[in-house]
Every structure is written in C-alpha cells, then in structure tokens.
Amino acid sequence: MYKLLRFLKPVKYFAALSVIFSMAHSGLSLLLPKILADIINDGINKGRRGYILLMGLIMLFLAAMSALCAVVSNYCSARTATGFGKGVRQALFFHVESLSQCDIDSIGTASLITRNTNDINKIQDMLMTILRTLITAPIMMIGGAIMAFSINKGLSSIMFIVIPIVVLIAVLVAKKIIPMFETVQKKTDMLNRILREKLSGIRVIRAFNRSSYEDERFRQANKDLTSLTLRISRFMAGILPVAVLLIFLLAVSIMGITSSQLNALDISIPEDRIQIETAVGNLQAFLVYLFMMISAVAMAAEMFIMLPRAAISANRINEVLEINTKITEPDTPVILAKVTPTLEFNDVYFCYPGAEASVLSSISFCVKAGQTTAIIGGTGSGKSTLVNLIPRYYDVSYGSIDLNGVDIRYMSTQALRKRIGFIPQTAFLFSGTIADNLLFGKPDATRKEMWEALEIAQAKDFVEQLPEGLDAHVSQSGKNLSGGQKQRLAIARAVIRRADFYVFDDSFSALDFITDAKLRESLRNNLKDSAMIIVAQRVGTIIDADNIIVLDEGRVAGMGTHKELLASCKVYKEIALSQLSEEDLA
User: Fold this and answer.
1) How far apart are CA 379 and CA 138, in angstroms?
2) What is the pTM assigned to this prediction?
3) Residue 291: which pLDDT band, with cuts at 50, 70 and 90?
4) How far is CA 112 from CA 138, 199, 335, 525, in A?
5) From the CB of residue 187, how many other CB atoms can be counted at a distance below 10 Å?
6) Degrees, nearest 5: CA angle 211-214-219
7) Domains of the chain (ranges plus CATH)?
8) Of the ranges 79-88, 195-204, 349-358, which is most confident?
C-alpha cells in the first residue's frame, strides 16, 4: 500500500492540517472531564457560585474550540482522501490508456472498472478513517489512562482486564473476515461483467427471449455478493455493541465498587464528608475517561480491520499500475521524411499471448499510396488481427512491418497513428453530437471540412435531414442510429484527418450494395494520394481493388487482382462463387 502514498503529495498540507487539528481536538476533549470534576468538587460542593460560572464559561469555550477543531479536522481529512482518490483514479485511467490490447484483455474490462471505482473508494475510506483515528485513538487511549490513573489508581486497574478483551475480540474477528475481502472484490468483478454483458447485449437477449435466464444469472451473482458482504458486516457490526456492553458493565462495576467504599464512610464526620464530596466529581470524570479509552480501542480495532481490506484493494490497483505494456516506446523515435508513403509486411508472424499456435504466419505484402489493397478470407482466418498490427494495437511476434522502410516499432505510436485513419470492425460512436465525433478525427476541423467528410462517407444526406444537423445528439455507442449510419459516420471521422493510410476493417458490412458502390467510388476519387486497406467479407466490395490478399488459416493463400485470383486461387474462387454467379464473375 505504501507505493500509493506518492499520490498524497498534492494534498499533503491538508493531511498535515487534519493531524494538527485532530491532536488539538483530542487534547481539548481530555481537559473537559477534569474541569467538570473541578466544578463539582470545588464549586458545587463548596457553594462557590463565581467559580462555577467562570469554569463553566471556560468549559464552554474549550468545548466550542474542540468542536471547531473536529470540524476542521474532518474537512481536511475529507479533502485529503478525495484528493488522494482523484490522483490514483487519474493515474490508473491514464496508465490503462497506455496499455496494449493484450494487457487489457489479460485483466478484463469489468475488473478494470471495479479497480478504478470500488477499490479506490475502499482505500479512500480507509485513508479518511486513518486521518480521523490514527492520532485521536492513541491520544484518547494514553491521555485517558494517565488522567484516569491520576484520579483513582485502584479503579484504573480494571482497564487492564477490559481493554485486552476488546483487542482479542477485534483480532479474532479480523482473522475471520480478512480472507473474505478479496473474495468480495472478485465477486464484484463478476457482477460488473454480467451487468455489462446484459446491457451491451440487451437486443440479443430480447431477440432470443433469454431475459429470464440473464435475470437469474444477475440475481445469483448479486445474491452471492450480498450474502458475503452481509456476513462481513455482521462480524464488523459486532465490535461496537461489544465495546458498548463492556463500557456499561465497567460503569456498573465502578459505581458498585465506589458506592461500597462510600458506604463505609460517615457523612457526619468532616473528613469523610469531604472525601464523599470529592469522590462524586472524580467518579464523573473517571467514567468519562474510561468511555474515551474504550471508544479509542474500538476505533483502533475498526481501523485494524479496514487496513487489510484496503491493502487488498491497493494490491489490485498496483497490479495494474505495475504492468509494463508490451507496446513500448523507442528511446529515440525515428522521424520519417515526407516521401510517398509505403507500408510493407516482411515475413510477419503473430501469436496471441498464451496461445499455442500462431494466428498469422509468413505474411508478406506491400501497400503503396494511391492503391487499394483488399484482404478477404473465411471467418477466423486472421483478417482483423492483421490490420490491428498496423497501428500497433499488438506487436508482431516475428518479422517486421515497415513504414517507408522503417520498422514501426522504432517510431512513436503517436506519430504512427497520426498517419493512419482506422475504422474498426464495430463502428463505435461517443455520446455527444455528430460534430463532437468528427472532431475526434481532427480536433481543429471546420464545419466545412466536416460536411466534406460526411459527403465523402455518403453520410451528408441523412445528417442534413436531422433537425440539428451536425449538432444532432448521438447517444451512448450511437444507439439512436442505424448500423449503416454509424459505419458511415465512423468512416467520416477517419476521412476528415486526411491520413496517409486508411484501414477499413469490414466497415461496409451494414451498407446496401448501392451505397457501398457509391462510397468506394467516392473514396477512390477523394483519397487518391492515400493508401487504402479494406477488410471485407463481400467480394463485390473488393472486386476493383488493385491487390487482393486471400487469407486462409492465417496464411496467404493467394495474392493478385480479382481476375488473377479467380484463375489461380482456389480459396478465393470458392468465396466468390458462394456470393456471386459465374455470369456476374465473368
């Protein structure tokens, strides 16, 4: 957990103020019972009205100062904890952004969400509790013991029996529930995963009438998490009632012992009468100090339980922060000269982490500016994996991908990705407006450039029909748009940046044949100086490509134009005949 302490630096002054005011609050609180005893002994018993008023005013002033210190201490501890949580959350988010896709896959999206929310909240709550009790509890415990001993040494010996009992109970409870905390976090990950799947796949669930099944999955995961959390809460809730019970048992015992001692005295004797009057005030103060001490022990026991729980969350956060991404930046990135761009695959092999066999084997081809290169193949042949290597979402296992003769691993990822307009297989839009999504491609784009990009992507017509036009609202993931509309907006977002290379990963699948043809013609006419790489399932989409690469089980089964492949590649001919008639192919 100490590794996360660096995030306290921006709020260290609030942490220091919290400690200072907490000490002041504890010190003032310890003075109040003593003053109360003095008022009873020297004021009420002796009938000194002026003394009572003076000490009463001093007591009220000290009580107000103690309350003010407590408020300031709590405010500073809250600012410290929330500032700490903000820093950790920001660092975790930025680090996750820098991770490669395989790093993210190894942890899981649901678990990353849990770590960035639930786990950080646990540490934040623990830090706030520590700042409020780490100083208060020891001062109350030690100061209360000193003050209680100064009042009555005999009665104070009872504390040596009770305090170890409270500590023993806390240790037993902690030993029982600490192993459960890690299980709680894992069950929270599971609940988040099921919830994300249910919300993301709501249409599929309804289409197959599986709502009851998914409801039962969620209900069971929720029940498991709830039952375990309740079990932990029951254990933890037992500490405070036990502490309160012991306090009142102690109070009863002390009153019983004191009353038996006072019964032996004779109020008619002046010395005994003074002793009885003094004992009443001292007993009041002694009980208050005793309550303080037992409460401090209970607070320390609660903190003792929270620390291991927060430590588990801290380990989960550090596990992410300590991941060294597999996509490393070069120490001295190569800066490419402004020449006609070319992209070349040189005997590329790729294997996913933990997989036994390569997904791609011996892939070699060249992409040049002004040309359209198409990639086609059966399901699972490695098409999407191949294009994901170009922007370095993954790094090749063997071989190299060269941009203008330079291995892309020697370039900075930012410079590399600026040269690429990437349209993923699933068209993802961010919540906001259409203009906001287009600005993702080019932050300084003008409205004119936006309309030009929409026209190239064949999206201008339907955007113009919207009442707000470019300012039309886009819901989360573009749920208020059709599949074809989302794909065309995603293409416009990539086109607006005017990149050297455009990668279309099956980005025309939701378009009808007429729109598909118009879009390809528009891209050819407007992106003449760029190279286009198109992954497609439909032969009609790539029939006019300058070079078609046919993949079969991760290997190149054929390469050439449409006519050349029909004559030389059996795999391509089978795909073509499954979609088009021989007359159409001819």
Assistant:
1) 66
2) 0.69
3) confident
4) 37, 17, 34, 43
5) 20
6) 120
7) 2-321 (1.20.1560.10), 340-419+501-511+528-580 (3.40.50.300), 427-498 (3.40.50.300)
8) 79-88
